[in-house]
Amino acid sequence: MKIAVVGTGMVGETIGSRLIELGHQVAMGSRSASNEKALAFVGKHKTGASAGTFADAAKFGDVIFNCTKGESSIDALKLAGDAINGKIIVDISNPLDFSKGQPASLLPALSNTNSLGEEIQKTFPNAKVVKTLNTMWCGLMVNPSMIGGGDHTNFICGNDVDAKSQVKALLKEFGWKEQNILDLGDISNARGTEAVLPIWLRVWGATQNGAFNFKIVS
Amino acid sequence: MKIAVVGTGMVGETIGSRLIELGHQVAMGSRSASNEKALAFVGKHKTGASAGTFADAAKFGDVIFNCTKGESSIDALKLAGDAINGKIIVDISNPLDFSKGQPASLLPALSNTNSLGEEIQKTFPNAKVVKTLNTMWCGLMVNPSMIGGGDHTNFICGNDVDAKSQVKALLKEFGWKEQNILDLGDISNARGTEAVLPIWLRVWGATQNGAFNFKIVS
Q1: Is residue B214 within 8 Å of B135, Cβ to Cβ?
Q2: What residues contact residue A6 under an 8 Å CB cut-off, 6+ apart?
Q3: CB atoms < 10 A from the CB of B185, how many?
Q4: HEC states along B167-191?
Q5: How far apart are CA B103 and CA B202, in angstroms?
Q6: What is the pLDDT of residue B46?
Q7: Which of A25, A32, B113, B146 is the most exposed place for a label (fewest CB within 10 A)?
Q8: Is A11 helix (H, G, I), strand (E, B) or coil?
Q9: How far apart are alpha carbons B75 and B31 in whole angstroms?
Q10: Which value, in Å, is the radius of gyration of the alpha carbons in chain B?
Q11: Region of residue B144 (left: phi > 0; alpha: psi -120 to 50; beta: else)
C-alpha cells in the first residue's frame, strides 16, 4: 500500500520504518522537501521510502498517518491541501500543551468538549479520520507483542466504518489481535482516548518505564 | 476503625456497607440528619451504622470517604467544618460535568490544570487528602476480585505518605493486592486519575458493561 507519514519525529520514524518492513511504500512528509530527518529516513531504507512536502506525501499516500505534534497538526495537514480529500487520516497525535509545566496538560480548545481527532475531521470533512494508537509509546504501537504477549488494549474510533476496517487491517499487520482492538464508535470518542494522556504521562513518571499499556480487564 | 462516609448515593452506600461488613463503624453524613437514604442504610445494618449531618459524620470518623458528587464535594465538605482538620479524606469522587451532554465531560475549573482532589486539599490544608478508587465502578472498588482474579490497577495519590499507607491498609481489606496499587505521587496526580473518566465512560458505553477496570501491562 502507498502510505504517507506526516511528521518526522520519533513517532513518524517508528511508524514509517515498520510500514516499510511490512512491505509498504512510505512517503514521509514535512514542511520542507529537504527536511534532514526525512532524508535520513530515506537513506536508512534501501527501498520503499521517499520524502517530500506535506502535499507531496499526501498526494502519494492512500492512507495518511498524522504523526505531527498535536499543537501543529491542523496547520501541517492544511499545508497538504486538497490531496487529503477522500483519504483516510490515521490520527495518532495528541493535543498536548507543554506551556503549563510538566507533565503536559491538554490544549483547552482541543480537549474535554472537543478533541484533536474531531477538529481534524471538521477541518477536512471529505477525509476519513480514524483515531487510534495514540494511547501508548510508539514502540508498542507497531509491536504490541513486546509486552504481555500483546494482550492489551488499543482503542479505535472514527465516523467511517469502512475506513476503520482498513485501518484495523494495518493494525493487525503491526501485530494487534482483533480482540484487543476496541472500537468506541464515532470520532467524538477521541475525547476519551486523548484524555488518556494525563494518566499515561503520570504512570510513566511513576514507573520510569514507557513500555506499558492499559488493558481492559472485565 | 471509625469511618465517615459523606454522600448517600450508590457509591457511599457501597463503600459504607463494605466497611461495616469488614467490622468498621460507619457514620453516613448528608445535608440533613434525617436523610432517607442514610436512615435506610442504618436500618439495613444491625450494628455499626449511624447517620447524621456532614459535620456529625466528620466528627465521628478518623477517616472520611468523600462519596459526594464531584460538582458539590467542596460545598458538602465545607458543611462538615472544622471537624475535617487533621483527618484523612479518601476522595473517590470525580468532577463530572453533566451540563454539556452525554457522556459527561469534566468541569473545566476542576480538570486539566487542576483537579477535584487538589481543590479539596487546597480548601482544607489541614486535612490529608488521598485520591484513590475513582477510576472504576463502585462494585469493583470494594471487591476487586470480582474480575480478572483482582489483577488490575488502582491508582493512589496524595501529599501525606503516612495517610497513603493508612488508606492502602483499608484498600487491602477491600481485597486490593499491594502490587496492583500504583502510587503516582502527590495530590496533583489526581489530574491524571480524574482524566480517566472520559475514557471510562466511553468504554462503558461501547461494551455496555461497567464491571471492568484498567490494568497496567508492562
Answers
A1: yes
A2: A12, A28, A29, A30, A54, A57, A58, A64, A65, A66, A67, A68, A76, A77, A80
A3: 15
A4: HHHHHHHHCCCHHHEEEEECHHHHH
A5: 7
A6: 82
A7: A32
A8: helix
A9: 10
A10: 16
A11: alpha
Residue matched to cell numbers 448528608:
B30
Measured in angstroms, the CA of A129 and the nearest CA of chain B are apart by 18
For chain B, give every domain's residue range. Answer: 2-207
- The reply to whether CATH 1.10.443.10 applies to domain A2-207 is no
**Is the peptide bond preceding residue B103 cis, with omega within 30 degrees of 0?**
yes
Q: What is the mean pLDDT of residues A137-143?
A: 98
Distance from CA of A141 to the nearest CA of B (A): 14
Chain A residue at shortest CA distance from B213: A217
d(CA B1, CA B61): 8
Q: Closest residue of B to A211, CA-based?
A: B218
Question: How close A197 gets to chain B, by Cα (Å)?
Answer: 8
Interchain CB contacts (distance < 8 Å): A and B = 126
* Bridge pairing between strands A213-217 and B213-217: antiparallel
DSSP-derived secondary structure for A66-93: E-S-GGGHHHHHHHHGGGGTT-EEEE--
Inter-chain residue contact A218 with B211, CB threshold 8 Å = yes
C-alpha cell of residue B145: 476480585
The answer to whether the CB atoms of A203 and B184 lie below 8 A apart is yes
B48-76 pLDDT, tens digit per residue, is: 999 999 999 999 999 999 999 999 999 99
Taking contacts as CB-CB distances below 8 angstroms, the residues of chain B near A201 are 192
Contact by Cβ (8 Å): B60, B9:
no
Q: Does B178 have pLDDT greater than 90?
A: yes
With a cut of 0.90, is the ipTM above it? yes
Q: Which residues pair with B156 in a beta bridge?
A: B132, B183
> Do A180 and A154 meet the contact criterion of CB atoms below 8 Å apart?
yes
Q: Give the span between the Cα atoms of B90 and A146, in whole angstroms.
A: 36
Angle between helices A116-123 and A73-80 (to 10 degrees): 30
Query: pLDDT digits over A26-65, tens only?
Result: 999 999 999 999 999 999 998 999 999 999 999 999 999 9
SS3 at position A32: coil
The cell for B54 is: 456532614
